[in-house]
Amino acid sequence: MSGRPDGERLVPVLAAAPAADGEFVEITDADVEQVVELWKTCELTRPWNDPYVDIADARAGDGSTILVARADGRVVATAMAGHDGHRGWLYYVAVAPELQSTGVGRAAVVAAEAWLVARGARKVQLMVRTANTDVLGFYGRLGYADQECTVLGRWIESDRGRVGLE
Asked: Which CDD domains match (predicted)?
């Protein structure tokens, strides 16, 4: 497990975020099902990305984590953060629908950025699907801007574990 497995407080939620119990902490085993459900509710999952594998991978090393905020005993916000040795990356920033536009999303980003800065990140990047204009506006208000680059990718894993060009 990465970082602070005991759930030690990382960063206070901003005053503008009235929902959470007051802090973002690293995910625990007990949070996993609620996190996956939140990601599904927020339409962040895709059939080709198993959220359970993504959670396990993020928790496997010191270079990444998943931060959660709770309200009334349930997970209401998440942010996955990873440091690749050069830049910080944000993934799976999610807020329960009833708490969107309350400041909790901003607090999730701030918490993840603080986690990354503590690990040496000088720049934070993220990817947003082009059609998701509401989320593009959210990140724009937080100072994120198009970096004028194209993200390319290809799957290198086929048939579970076999790597190669086909």
From this structure: NAT_SF
User: Buried (b) or exposed (e) across 34-49, using 16+ Cβ within 10 A?
Assistant: bbbebbeebebbeeee
What is the DSSP secondary-structure string of 43-85? T--BTTB-HHHHHHHHHSSTTEEEEEEEETTEEEEEEEEEE-S
Reading phi first (left if > 0) and then psi (alpha if -120 to 50, else beta), residue 148 is in left
With contact defined as beta carbons under 8 Å apart, do 79 and 110 qualify? no
32-41 vs 51-59: helix crossing angle, rounded to 10: 130
Position 43 scores a pLDDT of 94
- Parallel, antiparallel, or unpaired for β 88-95 and 124-126? parallel
As a residue count, the chain comes to 166
Please state the rounded mean pLDDT for residues 106-129. Answer: 94
Per-residue confidence (pLDDT) for residue 130, from 0 to 100:
87
Specify the CATH superfamily of domain 11-163. Gcn5-related N-acetyltransferase (GNAT) (3.40.630.30)
